[in-house]
Amino acid sequence: MAGTIATAGDNFGDRIKSWPDRIKSFYNDVRTEMKKVTSPAKKEVRGTTTVVIITVFLFGLFFFVVDYIISHTLEQMLHYLSRH
Question: Residue ranges per domain, the chain?
Fold first, then answer.
């Protein structure tokens, strides 16, 4: 039983000792990946921003119409049911 605890402690100690190497490896990997990253051109950013703005307005209009139809229908149904 004591051998198991010592082994677990050794394993923890090994992980602590390898921590600086793992950090260095992580940062090297990040640096390597960041060299592969490219920024989009201004024209591309402007185009995608325009698409997003138009899409937001279209969805807003769609939900406004759907909300109006549903609320108008429910109002008419409640008005009809309250009279009968």
Answer: 1-37, 40-84
What is the token pair recorded at 23? Answer: 């950090």
Task: Give the mean pLDDT per block of 10 residues along the chain (84 residues).
Answer: 52 79 93 95 97 98 98 96 85
Alpha helices in the chain (DSSP H): 2-36, 42-83
Any residues with CB less than 8 A from the CB of 48 and at least 6 apart, and which?
Answer: 40
Largest Cα span, the chain:
84
Overall pTM > 0.85? no
* Per-residue pLDDT, 19: 85
Eight-class DSSP state of 40: P
What is the spatial distance between Cα 56 and Cα 60, in angstroms, rounded to a whole number?
6
